[in-house]
Design brief:
about 150 residues; alpha+beta; nine-stranded antiparallel sheet
């Protein structure tokens, strides 16, 4: 047997114990998309800047990706300062992301049975699959989605 000590700081005030990781949270009830302070620092984001999302249409349900966007555009959401994080609100986007996550987690369940009024959290990859390709903007995978009730 190999025992590891559990750090109290990993669990206090956290229902998703992964300190120091860039995390994107989506709240199906409020429609809030929030980036924690580690995501803000990793991607060098500031209030007033923009982010966007992409989905892989060759996957069913699709994999989702996050990107920083240089300027206002049709596919960009402006970030606002929240409590120790940056955020924006878009309930239809949030509900689609949660719906796709629930389909991945419950592939044999009918999607009409899903409760979309939940909180979900994703790790954000810190390396873009597009690194080195100057023609393609950096995108980052949204991985390890979990539903937090």
């Amino acid at each position: 047997m190999k025992l590891a000590s559990v750090k109290k700081s990993d669990y206090i005030n956290s229902r998703f114990p992964n300190p120091g990781k860039p995390i994107l949270s989506v709240n199906g009830k409020s429609g809030i998309v929030a980036l924690n302070k580690y995501a803000v620092a990793t991607f060098k984001l500031k209030p007033g800047e923009y982010v966007g999302f992409l989905k892989d249409q060759e996957q069913d349900p699709p994999d989702w990706y996050f990107k920083a966007v240089q300027k206002e555009s049709e596919d960009a959401f402006i970030l606002h300062k929240g409590s120790g994080r940056l955020q924006f609100s878009c309930k239809p986007l949030v509900r689609e992301i949660i719906g796709d996550l629930l389909k991945k987690l419950n592939p044999h369940k009918d999607s009409s049975e899903f409760d979309l009024d939940v909180l979900a959290r994703f790790f954000l990859a810190t390396k873009s699959p597009m690194d080195g390709d100057s023609e393609v903007p950096d995108i980052y995978a949204m991985m390890g989605g979990k539903i937090i009730k």
